[in-house]
Amino acid sequence: MDSEGTYDGQATRAGRVPRPAPPAEPPPKPRHAPTAGAPLEGWLRTPRPEAEPGVWRFGYAPREGGAADPVGDRSLLTGAVISFLACVLAWSLISNNYIPYTDLPVKLLTPRDWWKPLDGGPVDGRGVAALQAYMLLVTVVLAVWFSRLGSWGLAFERLVAARGTRARVAGATAGALFVAMLIWTNTLTVLGLVGGHLPYEDMSAGTVKLVTLLVYAVVFAPVVLFFTRLARRPAPGGRLKTAPAPVETPQADPASWPELREAGLGEVAERLGGEVRGGRMNDVDYARIRRAWESVRADPTRLSAFADAVRDKGAAACVHPSGDRDLPVRAARHDLLARQVLLGTVEDGERNPYARRGTGLALGPDVLGTSLLAVGPSGSGKTARLVRPVVESLALQALAGQAAVIAVGAAGSRLGPDEAYDIVVRVGDPDSVHDLDLYGGTGDCDEAAALLAEALVADVPGADVRRAATALAQLLGPFRAAHGRFPAVPELRELLDGVPSAVTSLRQALEGAGQQAMLRELAARERQYGAHGDPGPALADRIALLDRPAFAGFFDTTGRGRPFSLRALEHPVRVRVDLPERGHADASRMLARLLLAQFNASAAARADRSLFAFLALDDASHTLTPETVRGLQRLRSANAGVLLSLRSLDDVPEALRTPLLGAVGCRMAFSGVTTWDGQRFAEAWGTEWVETRDVTHRTVFADQPLTRAIHAFRKMVTGKAVTTDAVTVRQVERERWSASELAHAVPPGCAVLSLTSVRGERAAPLLLRLAGTG
């Protein structure tokens, strides 16, 4: 099937990124299910409703209700107990006729001959039944009114049900037994009303027993049903403990591939459905074949090749060029249908919006396309809880033909095993299979010079990147014209230093080739040697960092090596670049700047932007320049994004800190950031209108002797003077998160994260409990 290498097999194509040949045997069956404990069919049928940016959509159900009243537990318990006692008192006074004329409504609504003329008592069973029904109605009205007054339901949910399922069941059982006791002892006249007026004397013994059982069933069944529902009802707005049951809609069952059946490929759909039911397909296979079908719909000429591949190979059809159908190991939970990775859970606290409390928080290309900046000290979990899950998610999407990912970190960073990547570039390691293209795979001398100058001198105070790019172009162009390639690092260093033999050799080669235009370029460079403001010495000093014995054999331009260039972003590649941070820190930072600049240029220059391109920098310290910050904003329209991880914003030039926070759409502050970094985040997140309550306590001075005595006794008992409270409620504008709160109020294992989608949707800063931290 011709698919520009996206879904081709293992054959080598011209221009493809080289990779060692994979084994011919089929890949092993994945060791894990696509979701925790859910088979593929159930995983496919689980609903994924549309939601706000960052919501884990797998099995998501919007939280119902509103925020709870901020009343304390003690006040809630006190109110419930007092209202219950008041209800019992009112009911007792009414039922024992201590309150006169309480039975007047029932006598007015019933015939007069039901009641005795003197004492008003019932004449026969009709009046008794009317009084019983009336008292039962009064009891229900009292219970409902006092339950609302005392918030019995809220008290039960917060004080009992919130302690767990067992507590909820125990509370419901106790309530059922209490009501049953009231009915059994005729305190509530339900049994007398339902079964006390039946003609038992006209029935046989067996009939009496049967009728009695029916009466009990009629009376106690509603009680059992009500309290059973109370015991099984989930807490209002509580967390969803398990995914909802699969939706049984055969017409839209994704496991049966309805889109293929609609296109007339019933045999292909049946083959794939059998693979799903037989357990031979995993989530990566499903996403990959679905992506292949989307490419077929875009180009119908691929239909026959797609159908043949599925008939022959089933779930292994349209496999990734590496032959892999899954990663060796997964460190996070992924949903490839929604293209999300679960980072953690939004804390159920007042700092988060009520609708988002307790929900899962996930990242996908829809928000990563605006780029993400993460700041936190060492050990806060940036690599393990953020960078690796995101890189792992995009590596899975690369296997499904949906993304290309490049992970850059120091050697030894835990960004996944080598087997999880197609290309692993170990800069400075002589055993590295792949090399790094210093010029980004471009053939344009000016573009290569601009990118190289950005990496070499953009962080040098007072350096003019434009003049440095011009100086490099005056050497790269002539050298490429003379030799058909760009210079290697030692050759470029000699030319920048103005070594006479190197310059003379290049001039002679240009004269022999008749390159007059390039001779003028070289002559212009020669005139700059030794002049004031010449960027050549600074460039030579920086390029000398790469001309070290540790890098011998790297950055080869003669074609003998296997260099990786970022021009491969049009293919679903998985790349990891290990930088020698320990022994060559300056060189590593320079290479990181080079990769970021090349990524910005290559992602925007792609002809095919259907793949989501992503670059993850595990340590972006001293890698950001004004041009790369401007380039971050252009990635949104190029279907690409960057993850930048920093220990502190102090690792970014002061003039770029505010533009950087404005250029990225997602900002993440881990636990332990400094107040100075917190201030920058607080300014970026802005303010919001909140309601404040100011309570003023005023001492009450009594004039009457009795009142004064009561106040004195109360003060003696409580130790406090009698006061009245004056409450003032107003709307004020406050920071969403202050610098002090970010520095001191974020618990370990948590982070504050704000999101922006590529469509412009925003999610306010959320306090997040990272997965695996408690």
Automatic annotation (TrEMBL):
Q: What segment(s) does the record annotate as region Disordered?
A: 1-48
UniProt keyword terms in alphabetical order: Membrane, Transmembrane, Transmembrane helix
What InterPro entries does the record point to?
P-loop_NTPase
Q: Which residues cross the membrane?
A: 76-94, 127-146, 167-193, 213-231
Determine if Ubl conjugation is one of this entry's keywords. Answer: no
Q: What's the name of the protein? A: ATP/GTP-binding protein
Source taxonomy lineage? Bacteria, Bacillati, Actinomycetota, Actinomycetes, Kitasatosporales
